[in-house]
Amino acid sequence: MFYIGEVESVIDSTESGEFIAKFPKLDNNKPQRVTYTSPFCKANAGGFIAVPEVGDQIIALYNENPTSKERPLYYHSTVIKTDLVTGNPTVRKDFKPLRSNDTKAQIYGEEEKPVTQTFTNTFGAGLYIQRDYSDTKISNNVTLKAESGDEVNVGSLGIQLTTSEGDHICLTGAESNDTHSGRTLSIETRSLQEYKCLNSDIRHRIVDGGDYLIENNSTGLFSISGKWWGNIRLKSRYRNIDLAALAPTSNVNIITQGARIQVDGTGAVKIETIGSIDFNAAQDINMTAGGSVNIVGNLGAQIGSQTGAAQVNAPTVFVNNQELAFNAGPPGAGVPSDAGAACTSTPIEGQAAIPAVPPVIVPNDYNDPIGAA
Q: Residue 350 gets which letter from DSSP?
C-alpha cells in the first residue's frame, strides 16, 4: 500500500538516509520515520543519493508486516505537483512544477515535449542532459554545472569548460559553428594564462597546416603600468635561443618599419636600414672575409685610432687605382736625390681620429642580468 505525505524533518543522527514525514491518511497525520531507498546504491559505497528535503511531497510504501529489523515505511519517490495534500495550488507567475535552473536546458522544448533530464540540487548545481530537435534549433548537450555558474558542456559544439565570468576552453567537434571551425581548440581568459612544465618538454608542432603565429595586439589598456605591455619576449636562463630555418629557400627575417636583417638559406646575410648602423665594442671588432671587404662611404670614409696606429697591411696598396709604394722612408721624410722618383711623400694634415667611447650597458626593463637583451 502507498501513502502520500510531506517531509517534516531530514535531521538524521545515524546518517542512514532516514527522515520524518507526516501522512494525512496514516495514524492521524502523526510523524513517521521513513527509510530512504534508491534505484541504485550500495551501503558504505555510494550510488544514486537524493534525500528529499523538508516540505517535499512524497510517496511512501507501507510495509504491513515488517520484521524486527525493518521499518513500516519506505520512501518511493517525490511528487511533482502543486500542494497535492491540501489541494491549494501555489499562486506564482514564475512557478513551474518541473523547473530547470539552466535557461539553456529547459525541461520542455518548443513543441511542449520533455527534452531534458536533470539531476540537480535545488540551487541548480548538477547534471543536465538535453536532446532537443525542433524546427528552429538542434541541441544535444550534456552539461555539468556548479551553483556559481561554472560548467563543463559536451555536445554538438564539442567540449566546453566555461566559468560564470565567460572565460572558457572549447574543443570543437567535427562540425563548425558560428564562432569556431571544426576540430579546433580555443582558450580565452580575461586575465593571466600560465603554462608550466616541471620535469619535461613543451612542444608545439604543425604537421600539414598553416603558419604558427604569436601576435601581441595589446594597446596597454589593461596593463600594469608604463611600458609593460605590447612586448614579446623569448628568454632562456641557462642555455641558447635558436632560430632555425632549415629549407634551402628558408629565410630568418628580423623586420621593423625602418630596417631588416635577413639570413637566407644560401648563407647570405643582409642588413638594410634607412638609418645608421653602429658597432660599439669595449674590445675588438674583427671583420674577416674569404673574398673581398668593401667599405664605401658616399660622403667619406675614415679609419682612425685614438691612441694606437692605423695600419694597412697588404702586398700592394692602391689609392685611386694607383699603386702606392714607400721606398724612400716613411711619409713626410722627403725623397733623396739618388732614390729615384718611385714615391714622393709630403706631410698631409689629416682629420683627427674619432675618440672611442666605451659602450654603456645597463639593466633592461625586466631586471635581467646586466647586458641581457
A: P
